[in-house]
Amino acid sequence: MSAKRLDQAALATRTAFVFPGQGSQKVGMLAELAEQFSGIQATFAEASEAVGFDLWHIAQSGEGLDQTEFTQPVLLTASIALWRVWLELGGVAPKYLAGHSLGEYSALVAAGAMSLGDAVKLVNLRGKLMQSAVPQGMGGMAAILGLDDARVLELCEQINMQGRGSVEAANYNAQGQVVIAGDKLLVEAVMAAAKEQGGKAIALPVSVPSHCSLMKPAAEKFAQALEETTIEMPHLPVIQNVNAKVAADVGELRQALTAQLYQSVQWTKTMQMLQDEGIQYIAECGPGNVLANLAKRLPNIEKAFPLDSRSRMEDALNAILVAEGKIA
């Protein structure tokens, strides 16, 4: 579908697409769909040629899939492969796009702001810079559940006052679910404090502490790569992670992508914006269903669909076409 037709088709819809970030990867992702849609492997071949290594092999074998520099281009490519299948099958053009962390790049590619080839090179570099910013094993992330946002921030501030490093809110994922990131020992201290306050704390199996000030050195280097990459205004509105707003120009897009490395992902506000804009249907365009499950908690979202298998894709396709009045 052309950019102009996407623009026009999206105007009247009540559907938004969301693209997942790191953590949604799994060995063998999209294997079933690849047997039925040649475009899946064609998309992976296109991205592999751009980045210089075999992304499909990594996705299917799992070799290197836990290394950030490989995880990020694999996930982005998987999301764009699913997006292309959706359009090929006549799926509704969404009114808004949003991506969680890495997923913001998937959203921008889907919206025509940058090419798939440029994007996979960017996120491969992004992963390398993030990995090199903090020595292996020195950083950490954890999900804090059951406490309100303000209380989690207070706990982080209390631990930071001890002056041994920093720990911050990294992802505001939903009411009562905040991910923290920073120096490993401080993350563990906040986890212990959260449990004492009656919350739950779950350490996340990640190799880098994303979306916190420890990533500022990576962001400074990454900004130059962004300046050298061709970026256009998206053909569909993309909600940015750092402020839950749609950029007014390409300069704002670049600034937001740089800041995203060391500032919090405002996913709770992003989902609230979608509800405020009348969105009722959410499709998660990537492996897994983490974002779809978060969306199901929201009062104004009627249905949220993952798209990572043939049956899930068809369920979403038919339900949304009926709900949007495209078919009876």
Describe this structure in words.
The chain has 328 residues and is of the alpha/beta class. The chain folds into two domains: 3-133 and 214-323, 3-Layer(aba) Sandwich (Malonyl-Coenzyme A Acyl Carrier Protein, domain 2); 139-206, Malonyl-CoA ACP transacylase, ACP-binding (Alpha-Beta Plaits). Helix content is 49%, strand content 14%. The protein has 14 helices and ten strands. The chain has helices at 3-10, 31-36, 38-51, 55-61, 68-88, 103-110, 116-133, 149-160, 184-196, 216-227, 250-260, 267-276, 290-295, 310-323, and strands at 15-19, 96-99, 139-145, 167-174, 177-183, 200-203, 238-239, 265-266, 281-284, 303-306. The protein has a five-stranded parallel beta sheet. Strands 6-3-5-4-8 form a five-stranded mixed beta sheet. The radius of gyration is 19 Å and the shape is globular.
Lateral strand order in the biggest sheet = 7-2-1-9-10
The strand count comes to 10
Query: Which descriptor suits the 3D outline?
Result: globular
Percent range for β-strand residues: 5-15%
What's the CATH topology name of the largest domain? Malonyl-Coenzyme A Acyl Carrier Protein, domain 2
Secondary-structure arrangement, i.e. CATH architecture of the largest domain: 3-Layer(aba) Sandwich
CATH class of the largest domain: Alpha Beta
The domain count comes to: 2
Main beta sheet:
5 strands, parallel
Main structural class = alpha/beta
**First-to-last CA distance:** 23 Å
| Helix fraction by DSSP (H/I, runs of at least 4) | 40-55%
GO molecular function, one term: [acyl-carrier-protein] S-malonyltransferase activity
Catalytic activity: holo-[ACP] + malonyl-CoA = malonyl-[ACP] + CoA
Enzyme class: transferase
Organism: Acinetobacter chinensis
